[in-house]
Amino acid sequence: MKTNVDSKTAYLVQLALMVAVTILMSFTPLGYIRLPGLSMSLLSVPVAVAAILLGPIGGLVCGTTFGLTSLYQAITGGSAFTGTLLGLNPAGTVFLTVVARALMGLCAGLIFAALHKNVKTQKISYYVTSLAAPLLNTIFFMSSLVLIFYRTDYIQGFVAKYASTNPLAFVIAFVGVQGLIEAVVCFIVASAVGRILFGAVNKMGINYTLQKEEAAKAVQ
Question: Is the model's pTM score more than 0.70?
Answer without folding.
Answer: yes
